[in-house]
């Protein structure tokens, strides 16, 4: 086995079982990739939830704060929040209310249209966002330890292509 080849894992065993069961050899590589993507995504989410939870924040809160922190003037309409975090309007409304209760966001009337509101980060929300980003960055540093920068670039490019391909299928 080459020096850089990691040891076999549970996905290798799953793919071997599919192969023995007469699985289509042409798709075994994609099947292996699919299994690993789901497992790594799950492992990453668990690591993030664990780290954030130890500091009193949930992953969804970080995602909402991040969307607002990236926005011009740190504010978005509820519809823009919905698009940024890919949730339904009911879920976004509920989550905005919860963040508002924590003092991290506020609802501001749109001066140009009194029927509309903006969701804005408060000073405490900005502080919490920055602290949460630091926690998330530590987890991402762990990912970076597993691969060299060139491999990270190759994997990112490949995943971007898969994402565009699958997103295109959803829009058909």
TrEMBL record:
It comes from the Bacteria. Keywords: DNA-binding. One of its GO terms (biological process) is response to stress. Residues 30-164 form the HTH marR-type domain. GO terms for molecular function: DNA binding; DNA-binding transcription factor activity. The keyword Iron does not apply. This is DNA-binding MarR family transcriptional regulator. It comes from Amycolatopsis echigonensis. The lineage of its organism: Bacteria, Bacillati, Actinomycetota, Actinomycetes, Pseudonocardiales.
């Amino acid at each position: 086995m080459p020096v850089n080849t990691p040891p076999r894992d549970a996905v290798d065993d799953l793919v071997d079982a599919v192969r023995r069961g007469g699985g289509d050899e042409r798709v075994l590589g994609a099947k292996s990739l699919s299994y690993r993507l789901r497992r790594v995504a799950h492992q990453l989410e668990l690591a993030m939830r664990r780290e954030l939870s130890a500091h009193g924040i949930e992953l969804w809160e970080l995602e909402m704060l991040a969307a607002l922190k990236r926005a011009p003037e740190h504010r978005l309409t509820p519809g823009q929040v919905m698009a940024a975090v890919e949730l339904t309007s009911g879920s976004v409304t509920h989550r905005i209310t919860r963040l508002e209760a924590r003092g991290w966001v506020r609802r501001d009337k749109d001066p140009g249209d009194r029927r509309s509101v903006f969701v804005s980060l408060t000073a405490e929300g900005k502080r919490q966002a920055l602290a949460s980003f630091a926690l998330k960055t530590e987890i991402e540093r762990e990912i970076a330890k597993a691969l060299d920068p060139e491999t990270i670039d190759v994997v990112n490019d490949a995943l971007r292509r898969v994402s565009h391909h699958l997103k295109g299928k959803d829009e058909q």
